[in-house]
Amino acid sequence: MQEFVQRMRAGDQRSLARLITVIERGKSDSYSALEAIHPYVGNAYVIGITGPPGAGKSTLVDRLTSQYRAKGLNVGILAVDPTSPFTGGAFLGDRVRMQKHYLDPGVFIRSMATRGSSGGLPRATKGSIRVLDAAGIDIILVETVGVGQTELEIMNAADSVVVVLVPEAGDAIQTLKAGLLEIADVFVVNKSDREGASRLIAELEISLKLGESIPWWLPPIISTQANKGLGIELLENTIQEHRKALEESSRLPEKRQNRNRAEFFKAIEEGIGNLIGNIFDNKGTTATMLERVEDGSLDPYTAAYSLLNDGSVFKEWAAFIEETKQES
Amino acid sequence: MQEFVQRMRAGDQRSLARLITVIERGKSDSYSALEAIHPYVGNAYVIGITGPPGAGKSTLVDRLTSQYRAKGLNVGILAVDPTSPFTGGAFLGDRVRMQKHYLDPGVFIRSMATRGSSGGLPRATKGSIRVLDAAGIDIILVETVGVGQTELEIMNAADSVVVVLVPEAGDAIQTLKAGLLEIADVFVVNKSDREGASRLIAELEISLKLGESIPWWLPPIISTQANKGLGIELLENTIQEHRKALEESSRLPEKRQNRNRAEFFKAIEEGIGNLIGNIFDNKGTTATMLERVEDGSLDPYTAAYSLLNDGSVFKEWAAFIEETKQES
């Protein structure tokens, strides 16, 4: 693992891709990978780009990438699509658009649509961000397609969140409902030459004012026409301002601390999820309870609730793990 | 809670709706609700309907509902949309289509698009299925919009899974990739008057033959034109055949046993997720570890892995819960 990490640190993109694959699979070697890269993590800035399908997020990511490259920064792009592969067509289109970046060694692009792996897309994405960070990448752009729970969870991993909308009836209110208002640091009204753009901006402004009384940061609303490259520089400057505001108010370390905490707790929760089967198959009062749940005489939720409140399950688990250690 | 359950058992749809809301919120009273309904659970038959957007699932659900109603069976419909509210428009259309069923006291319809609640949509949907079951509903139709991880997890709760496709280039292969082939008990090729229907059927047949060597049940492929009501009776008969095959081979009780087990384990995992914060804030080696994770000196994944492998975390948790019990 150390070998891959050293080669990745020396700029080898194949080692980088390989490490992300290890993380995506989520097997036990993903822990060694995350441990091995840890000393190099903490320098990248993570920008999340989200919004409804068809808002032009990929074009925006493409243009932002050019902007950062012109400044000499290298860029990592994670395109996350929880509903894939049924949107495979869209990604093919993206790939054509992104072609010039594919040839640029300062840009690393990866589409993520894992399913089945433990923890799923949010875990795989958060781990991959760490890998890109450790590879020495300056700016990580995480693009999520869609607006479900998974996307909101992924956006937790970003330092700045850009919510992209297009002028279409009701969009602003829909955004509120989808929980995007709460996570947005910057709003983009893309395709701003379309009818309804000014109404959308007005609606967003009202929604923002209905929020917290005195927010420390009021999300700016940027108009763009990503396909023509209009508004991209302003967007980049605004993200930069948000970054500066985070850093100067010491909110950035706090944000990252909370993120570490959340990832830790989630990893424990999932780890226990993986252990559960072994432990219950083994013995003890928990095994008896499982039988009663399986045959339907006990409600699974009530059973889980009483087990956890009683605390005896933890004692049994401690004993089980102790025993396993002695055997091996 | 008992009062609501009794009123629901007597046919009061408002009490039924209220109980589902309690389950959706996932607060501590959801446990009392699930415990209270448990004696009445186990008689409904659950049919999952899934497939890509635009396949005509809602129309199919509408027609199947009429079919079951004509047989005197009452029907519960759960329409689950993880990407809502951005697809709000589609649901409005569904509501118009389903209007005649809304006036029928033998049909209960609920749209589900929870976010934020612990465990999210899969937990809320599985709990709601239990509520509908306890209300004495015969047939529960669970329709999921989209083809992501969440949808696949929800389909685990169904006794029979119907995968709906429409003739469009590449659909059969996409389905394979999305994991729908593995979960389908019946395939529906809807809008079968469209060009490409026979090719889609041929592709599906090949895909199915490439699967297991001697499957106990080979998923039939049914052609429908749901908007004209064509093929619906055949579909209903085929689902009935699958149900009979499950029952006669004792696979149905086994399936439900596994489901109880999975819900139990998931409930424990999530319960621990809710407890984690309290326990770590308290004391012990775990608290020291948390500090090191938060300040970034320890990788969260490595930390979680070592905690769980060591087993000491379980001992600390048992002690913490013991202490909390004595205090209260």
Keywords:
globular, 16 helices, alpha/beta, seven-stranded parallel sheet, 11% strand, 328 residues, Rossmann fold, 2 domains, homodimer
* Largest β sheet strand count, sense and barrel closure of chain A: 7 strands, parallel
Q: Output the helix-strand order of chain A.
A: HHHEHEHHEHEHEHHEHEHHHHH
> How many E strands of chain A?
7
CATH topology of the largest domain in chain A: Rossmann fold
Largest interface: A-B, 78 and 78 residues
Query: pLDDT under 50 segments of chain A (min length 5)?
Result: 85-93
Mean pLDDT of chain A comes to: 84
Radius of gyration of chain A: 23 Å
Number of helices of chain A: 16
Give the topology, please.
The structure is a homodimer of 328-residue chains.
Chain A: H1 2-9, H2 13-25, H3 29-37, E1 45-50, H4 57-70, E2 75-80, H5 88-97, H6 99-102, E3 107-112, H7 120-134, E4 139-144, H8 149-155, E5 160-165, H9 171-178, H10 180-183, E6 186-189, H11 197-209, E7 221-223, H12 232-248, H13 251-282, H14 284-294, H15 300-310, H16 312-327
Parallel strand pairs in A: 1-4, 1-5, 2-3, 2-4, 5-6, 6-7
Helix pairs in contact in A: 1-2, 2-3, 2-7, 4-12, 7-8, 9-11, 13-14
